[in-house]
Amino acid sequence: MNRKWWLGFWLVWAVSSIAAGPVDTVQRLSEFRQVDVARLLAGEILTERGAMMDFPNGISAQTCFAVALPAEEVARRLQVWNPTPHAELKVSAFHALPVPCRVEDFTKLQFNSPQRPIRWLLEKTLATTPTKSVLNLSHSEAAELTGSLAKAANPQRVADCWAKLLAVRVTAFQQQGLAGISPYEVNGKTASPVTQLRALLHDQAGIAVEFTPVLRKIGLLGNSPDATLEPFYYWSWFEADHHATLSLGAVYRLAAGERFQVADVEYYVSGDYYTAVTLYEIWPVTGGALVWRVDLFAAPMLEYTKGVERLAYEVLMVQDIKQETRYMLDDLKVK
Description:
The protein has eleven helices and eight strands. The chain is of the alpha+beta class and 335 residues long. The protein has helices spanning 3-16, 22-29, 37-41, 71-79, 116-126, 139-151, 155-176, 193-203, 205-210, 212-218, 307-333; strands at residues 46-49, 58-67, 91-96, 232-240, 243-256, 259-269, 275-285, 288-298.
């Protein structure tokens, strides 16, 4: 990252964070014209699409809600929230990963299913060659998949290959952080998840400034990640755009004065999009905690959308996030 750009971020954050209260901060940095904490504590959820990005692969959305719990408890629960009990969210698997990760941690992967989204991923895996795939793979991953499946191309073999691929990716991330994330190389063009994440943050500079404490610890801002900030590692399997999608993520939680910041970074996605990061800022307020959520999303198809088509993607994103937030809020309220 450019040193002058990072220094500018740090200076702006230092000035802007001196006296702003939580409601003022949310209204200043979001599209929300009015944030009424009492109404939020009563169950209202505010959701808006983010400002149009100059970054061609990116879109964003913002959400605001409140919970009648201490801010620290809300941050702790958000870090490990499991969406699988809610069938409408179409998340079929969500599992915590230990350190170190093992291939055996992916035994829940099953491709022997008649469901169309899973059949799609099975077929696209089998169609992969060392130089071409619609999936997000490095050259070495594509070559290994092709070689392994040439010996036996059945659903169990596909599951075993994906388990090995995911375990290798997790191990590299656990040992090296962002530096261990391999780019996607066989889907028409090379794309780095880290480069995509930094481009999203560069485009949304005000948000990046506000979340400087946690982003700096992760290493997405600046060049000195803090290894002492241990994340919650997970893998998930869900449906995205009617396709079964595998994802690897790490959720970081940081106390920043009286408030807390949580960052959920998807550092690997098997297809359809490149990466995403969900940021939460949680403040103590009278009656509980105020939560501001920012979703930043990078996908290749967005580069070719403009006007009404791009707006349609943003509207769908907002609808999905609002539904997820409603279930999340219900779970947070459970003692």
